[in-house]
Amino acid sequence: MTKGAPNIVTGASGFVGAAVVRRLLDAGEAVRVLMRPRSDRRNIEGLDVEMVEGDLLRPETLAPAVKGCRALYHVAADYRIWTRDPAAMFRANVEGSAAIVRAAAEAGVERIVYTSSVAVLGNPGDGRSGDEDTPVTYADMVGPYKQSKFKAEECIRELTAREGWPVVIVNPSTPIGPRDVKPTPTGRIVVDAAKGKMPVYVDTGLNVAHVDDVAEGHLKAFATGRIGERYVLGGENMGLGDILGVIAELTGGRPPLFRVPTGLIMPIAHASEAWCRLTGGAEPLVAPDSVRMAKKKMFFSWAKAARELGYAPRPARNALADAIDWFRANGYIP
To answer: What is the rounded distance in angstroms from the CA atom of residue 178 to the CA atom of residue 175?
Structure first.
């Protein structure tokens, strides 16, 4: 396929962003990536991409970056459950998102795919699935990550409606799979479980999606998504105990023996956070916000994406198997 105008991807060095880059390249598309000067570039090393330096918080760098592009895939986000500086997370996720989307719209791109999260959606939390229309308010958001992503999507939706920007929103659930170099908070669960470092678990649940299916969903959103609409890019709803059981099967380890209530974990989390602040550690072993989030089963339906985009994710076991294979091949687990 002859390559035309480039598609620019933000967050290309990250887990989901790198998967989007690879899927675009597989489709024969030209790809430009926006990178900060000191970003970790392992995830795109050796790929046939045009690299431009810029920063979401320096708007003057964005107009040159998006000039001449066919599409923007804005995947970049500050994704951490715990941070010392919530204000910086809000600047990156809210102000940065508005700046890059505005720059792309003003440059006349054909379409913008904005990567949000199921973290901002309403969710019953009791085992029933939430979706794009489940009621939710800002007060339901736990911690600065969810709060900042809620405000960011709210901002993008308002600007899209007011300015007529060609934005389609996607809400990935819990991506798992290869090339989770950081790793993400969910990737750390996989690594710790594979190492046998999770002897107990709490009664929570996640919607597990293969990261490559999530990337495919981004391209489908560009092709057939409706402007101003949002689409859950999810997978299989699984209890945490079931996830850990599959990991044990795949690694030949033992599944955790005991389920503990979140009330027993919370004092440990507060102590871990206090110790982290006292010693200057990077992050707590267990963050209080993680425990608060675990009180709800984060189950979601991707029926709308299936119906309107043709989205069809593979089983969660495949995602876990591919993640474990990659983590093992790259030295994260023995």
So the answer is: 10
Name the β-bridge partners of 172.
233
Class assignment of domain 7-182+208-235+299-314? alpha beta
The rounded distance, in Å, linking the Cα atoms of 193 and 183 is: 14
Question: Is 47 buried (19+), middle (13-18) or exposed (0-12) by CB count in 10 A?
Answer: middle
Q: Write down the pLDDT at residue 265.
A: 85
Read off the pLDDT of residues 30-88 as tens digits, 9 standing for 90 and up: 999 999 988 889 999 999 999 999 999 999 999 999 999 999 999 999 998 888 889 99
Cα 112-114-119 angle, rounded to 5 deg: 165
pLDDT band at 1 (very low <50, low <70, confident <90, very high): very low
CA 328 to centroid of chain Cα atoms: 22
> What tokens appear for 94 in the block?
């809210």
- Nearest CA-CA partner of 125 in 109, 148, 142, 110: 142
282-303: string of b/e by CB count within 10 Å (b at 16+)? eebebbbbbbebbebbbbbbbe
For residues 167 and 224, the answer to whether their CB atoms sit within 8 Å is no
C-alpha to C-alpha distance for 6 and 10, rounded to whole angstroms? 13
At 126, the pLDDT band (50, 70, 90 cuts) reads confident
How does strand 236-239 pair with strand 205-210? antiparallel
Where b means 16+ CB within 10 Å and e means fewer, 50-86 reads eebebbbeebebbeebbeebbbbbbbbbbbbbbbeee
What secondary structure does DSSP assign to 216-265, as a single string? HHHHHHHHHPPTT-EEEE--EEEEHHHHHHHHHHHHT-PPP-EE--HHHH
Structure tokens that stand for 222 in this block: 């560009």
